[in-house]
């Protein structure tokens, strides 16, 4: 199959890897089943190209499904080939990249095909936390196959032809494709919490290449993936003016302004992604209340509150970072918890999951408070009490149980406006400022916003050799 340069599966691999670096294996494998005249059909490579290649010199293992062979369906040998890719990747300690274009289960092989699905799932679980798993969806990815990108660490979907679904839109009661195309890239990206990026095929390949170059190759790899030519003491001016949009802040403090955002369209009030500090890859989790466009104009705004979707997004990302010993930076600017009927059904569990992820993580953890940090929402966001190694705050940050005026009204319900104003000022000075929190040891240093980069570089350099001896137990329950 590798000699067929017109084959789409091969073309996708060629776009992804360094030139002439891909080595195909298992090209002579074909389907074994003879039921329903399957032997009469030509099944070169049983519909999936597998092998290894290089991305900017980094070893990766790849499988790419070929929709021209039995519609790319998964049968016994197809699944065994994908499983063999995982086995090699785990032995060599290198990422696995799956390029999905599949018609689902191969009905002619029935239970053998079902067993193949289970084999793939099991290999993904075995590789989880050992090597990074990345997938791109370029065609159909439906039914049981939709679990494959969900089990991966990162998933990308082609904006026009990529389709991901558990049940097809027309199979959902009361719905049809014209009414709501639940399988579309846009719907899945905004709603399912699996998709990191939507774009053209070429854009996805470029994104995957950038991601591979930022990640450790395995759970014992080094987070120093680059040399740094950027000034470590570079001042970042005017960041406080756009503190509501952490995408701007993170890109400003990162080496050469590199910020790789994950799950960009999902739970947009919580931002997650990867930055570089002195060549070290750092995971970032940040509250977001504003979104600015390329011209610096406010395009979108959110409450400064934690939501269930945002907490789940943060928890999953922190768990990934911790598995690969990637340091975590949190940017805190939050004043409460989402107040609505929907949140009441899901928020407590999501808050527990995020708190567990931060507290349980043994990687280096730094919290930067840029604006408001009020109530239990502040505690959940990687505060010192749940395990942050260092907490920095911008000098004008507010940290406390609640807004000072509201606190004064609760404590002095009979007071007039002037007295409330005075009591609020007293409360802010004594209990509601970054300085008061620092006086109690909850903040390690007050910093000027322009100096953020140099202090964070120094913090993570110091924490590079962090080691935590964990108590003996099988695992936690969250």
Structure report:
The chain is α/β, with parallel strands linked by helices. The chain has two domains: 8-211, 2-enoyl-CoA Hydratase, Chain A, domain 1; 223-397 and 433-465, 2-enoyl-CoA Hydratase, Chain A, domain 1. It has helices spanning 8-16, 76-92, 110-127, 147-151, 185-191, 201-214, 246-253, 308-323, 341-360, 375-380, 404-411, 417-431, 434-439, 452-462; strands spanning 23-25, 48-55, 58-65, 96-100, 133-137, 140-142, 154-158, 163-165, 197-199, 259-262, 270-277, 280-287, 290-292, 298-301, 305-306, 328-334, 336-337, 365-374, 390-394, 398-400, 445-447. The strands form five sheets. Strands 10, 11, 12, 16, 18, 19, 20 and 21 form an eight-stranded mixed sheet that branches. Helix 2 packs parallel to helix 3 and helix 8 (308-323) packs parallel to helix 9 (341-360). It is globular. 48% of the residues are buried. This is Propionyl-CoA carboxylase.
The helix tally amounts to: 14
CATH superfamily of the largest domain: 2-enoyl-CoA Hydratase, Chain A, domain 1
CATH third-tier fold name of the largest domain: 2-enoyl-CoA Hydratase, Chain A, domain 1
Radius of gyration: 25 Å
CATH architecture grouping of the largest domain: Alpha-Beta Complex
Total number of beta strands = 21
Helix content: 25-40%
Question: What is the highest CATH level, the class of the largest domain?
Answer: Alpha Beta
Broad structural category: alpha/beta
Q: What general outline do the C-alpha atoms trace?
A: globular
User: Mean pLDDT, nearest integer?
Assistant: 90
Number of domains: 2
């Amino acid at each position: 199959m590798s000699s067929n340069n017109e084959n789409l599966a091969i073309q996708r691999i060629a776009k992804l890897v360094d030139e002439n670096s891909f080595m195909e294996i298992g090209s002579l494998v074909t389907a074994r089943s003879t039921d329903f005249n399957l032997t009469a059909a030509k099944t070169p490579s049983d519909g999936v190209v597998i092998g290894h290649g290089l991305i900017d010199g980094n070893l990766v293992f790849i499988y790419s499904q070929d929709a021209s062979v039995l519609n790319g369906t998964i049968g016994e040998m197809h699944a065994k080939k994908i499983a063999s890719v995982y086995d090699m990747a785990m032995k060599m300690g290198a990422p696995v990249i799956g390029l999905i274009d599949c018609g689902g289960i191969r009905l002619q092989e029935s239970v053998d095909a079902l067993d193949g699905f289970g084999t793939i799932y099991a290999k993904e679980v075995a590789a989880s936390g050992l090597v990074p798993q990345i997938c791109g969806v370029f065609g159909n990815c439906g039914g049981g196959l939709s679990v494959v990108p969900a089990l991966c660490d990162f998933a990308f979907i082609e904006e026009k032809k990529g389709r991901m679904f558990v049940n097809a839109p027309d199979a959902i009661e009361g719905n049809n494709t014209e009414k709501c195309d639940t399988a579309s890239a846009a719907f899945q990206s905004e709603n399912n919490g699996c998709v990191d990026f939507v774009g053209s095929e070429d854009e996805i390949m470029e994104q995957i290449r950038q991601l591979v170059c930022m990640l450790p190759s395995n759970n014992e790899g080094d987070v120093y993936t680059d040399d740094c030519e950027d000034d470590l003491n570079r001042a970042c001016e005017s960041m406080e003016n756009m503190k509501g949009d952490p995408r701007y802040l993170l890109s400003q403090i990162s080496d050469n302004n590199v910020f790789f955002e994950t799950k960009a369209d999902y739970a947009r009030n919580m931002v997650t992604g990867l930055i570089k500090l002195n060549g070290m890859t750092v995971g970032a989790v940040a509250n977001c209340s504003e979104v600015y466009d390329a011209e610096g104009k406010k395009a979108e705004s959110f409450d400064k509150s934690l939501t269930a979707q945002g907490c789940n997004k943060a928890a999953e990302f922190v768990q990934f970072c911790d598995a690969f010993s990637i340091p975590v930076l949190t940017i805190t600017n939050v004043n409460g918890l989402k107040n609505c009927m929907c949140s009441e059904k899901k928020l407590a569990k999501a808050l527990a999951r995020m708190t567990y992820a931060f507290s349980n993580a043994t990687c280096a953890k730094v919290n930067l408070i840029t604006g408001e940090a009020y109530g239990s929402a502040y505690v959940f966001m990687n505060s010192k009490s749940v395990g942050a190694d260092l907490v920095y705050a911008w000098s004008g940050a507010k940290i406390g149980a609640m807004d000072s005026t509201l606190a004064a009204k609760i404590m002095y319900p009979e007071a007039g406006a002037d007295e409330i104003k005075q009591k609020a000022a007293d409360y802010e000075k004594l209990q509601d400022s970054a300085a008061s929190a620092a006086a109690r040891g909850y903040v390690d240093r007050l910093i000027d916003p322009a100096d953020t980069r140099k202090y964070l570089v120094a913090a993570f350099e110091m924490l590079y050799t962090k080691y935590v001896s964990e108590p003996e137990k099988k695992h936690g329950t969250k």
